[in-house]
Structures are given as structure tokens and as C-alpha cells.
Amino acid sequence: MNNKRREKISDLMEELSNLKDRLESIREEEDDARDNMPESLQNSERYEQSEEASESMESAEEALQEAIGYLESVAEA
């Protein structure tokens, strides 16, 4: 792979990293909001939806990190 394509891959890795960071921030906000719900809502559908959303965002973060890892391997080849 030539340097120009490596640079493009590096740019993609940076973009994915930024997206992962933004998503992590949103997930943390959701976690904080759920942690601050009154006890009366902790067994509610709203609480469960929030928990599922956080879990999905965490899975997406992991997938983005995995994609970054693949791109690192490509760039090093």
C-alpha cells in the first residue's frame, strides 16, 4: 500500500475514533439520566428502554473500535 492510501486509511481511523468518542459521550449521558431516575421509574418500560439503548450504543462503540483495529492492520501491511 502506498503512502497516499495509508494516509486515507489514517484519516478514516481518526473519523471513526471521533465517532466512537461522540457515541460514548451520548451513552454516558443516557447512563447518567437513567441513574438519576426516581426509584418509582426503575422498573418501568422507560428505564428498560434506556438500558437497552445504552447496551446497543456500547455494542456500536465496540464495533467501531474493532473497525479501527482492522484499519490499523491494513495500514501496517
| Amino- and carboxy-terminal Cα gap | 7 Å
Count of alpha/pi helices: 2
Question: What is the overall silhouette?
Answer: rod-shaped
**Average pLDDT score:** 96
Largest sheet: none
Number of E-type strands: 0
Low-confidence residue ranges: none
| Succession of helices and strands | HH
Radius of gyration: 17 Å
Notable features of this structure?
mainly alpha, rod-shaped, 77 residues, single chain, 84% helix, 2 helices
Structure notes:
This protein has 77 residues and is mainly α. Helices cover 84% and strands 0% of the residues. The chain has two helices and no strands. Helix 1 (3-35) packs antiparallel against helix 2. It is rod-shaped. The mean pLDDT is 96.
Give the helix/strand layout.
Layout: H1 3-35, H2 45-76
Helix pairs in contact: 1-2
Question: Could you write a compact summary of the structure shown?
Answer:
The chain is built from two helices and no strands. With 77 residues, it is mostly helical.
